[in-house]
Amino acid sequence: MSAHIHTTNNRPGHATSSTSRRMRHPHDDAPDTAAQFARLVDLDEGPERELLKEELAEAWLPMAHRIAGRFGRRGEELDDLRQVAALGLVKAIDHYEPSRGAFESYAVPTITGEIKRHFRDRSWALRVPRRVQELRNRIRGAHRELSQLPGAGEPQIEEIAVHLGLTEDEVKEGMQALHSHSTLSLDAQLSSADDGFSLADALGDPDPAYDTVIDREAAKEGLAKLPERERTILYLRFFEDKTQQAIADQLDISQMHVSRLITRSCAKVRAQALGAEEQDLPRAA
C-alpha cells in the first residue's frame, strides 16, 4: 500500500450517544476503527484487504500528521516528515494485532520511531555514529532544561556534564555533533554587502613553506654530524649561493673536490633523514 495518502475530512462518523462520548479516544484525530481492524484480521491478501487498509490509513492520517508536526522545527520540510509519518502509519496498520490493545498505543511509537529513523539515517549531512547522535540529543535537552531554570544563564559544559552524569569530554563531543546535522555550501555568501565573499574565498591555499620547515627539521641532525669543512661548503653553496669555483678559491681547493664534497655531504644528510646506514654512502675519491 502506498504511503502517499491524501487527507480527507470524511472521517468515520462520531457517535453522538452519551455512551460513545464517554468512550471517546484521547485525541480528536484518533477515530474508532476497532470494527475495521477486526475485519482486517480475518481477510486474506487481495483487493478487499488492500481497500480496507486504505480506508484505515485515511482515517488515521491526521494523527500521523500531528506526530510529524512535533518534529517540524528540526530542519526538515514538514511535507517530507508527513510522508515519513504516513509510511510509519502503513507499517503500523500492517503489523497491528487488535488483541494487544488499542491501535493508537501501537501506532504512535511506530510512527515516531520511523520519523526518528529518518532523521538518524537520512538528514545528517555528515556521517555521525548513532552513539554521538543520541549524545547530541541528550545534551540539547539538558541545555534547554538548564536554560529555563530561574536566573539561569547560558549553560556551561561542566554544568551540562553534572546534569547528565557525563564527562566534560563527552559533552564536548556531543556539542560538536550539534553542528554536524547540516553543512554549508562552499559557495554560500558569508556577507550580504556588495563586497561579500563566499566560504570558499575564506579558505587558505596550501603553504609551500610548510614543506620547507619539514625538510629543514629532517636535515638538522645530518648537518650537525658533518665535518666543519663540509658544513661550510654547504652553507656557502646553498645559503650564500656561491658557485663551486668561488668556494674552491675561498678554501684553496680544486673545484672538482668541492663538487665531490657537496655530493657526498648531501648524500649523508639525505641518508640520515631517511634512516640509511653509513656504510651505504658513496665515498669521495
From TrEMBL:
Pfam families: Sigma70_r2, Sigma70_r3, Sigma70_r4
MF annotations from Gene Ontology: DNA binding; sigma factor activity
Keywords: DNA-binding, Sigma factor, Transcription, Transcription regulation
Record carries keyword tRNA processing: no
Biased composition (Polar residues): 1-20
Domain RNA polymerase sigma-70 region intervals: 56-124, 134-195, 223-270
Segments for region (Disordered): 1-30
A GO biological process held by the record: DNA-templated transcription initiation
PANTHER family found in the cross-reference section: RNA POLYMERASE SIGMA-E FACTOR, SIGMA FACTOR F FLAGELLAR
Protein name stated in the entry: SigB/SigF/SigG family RNA polymerase sigma factor
Gene source species: Streptomyces mesophilus
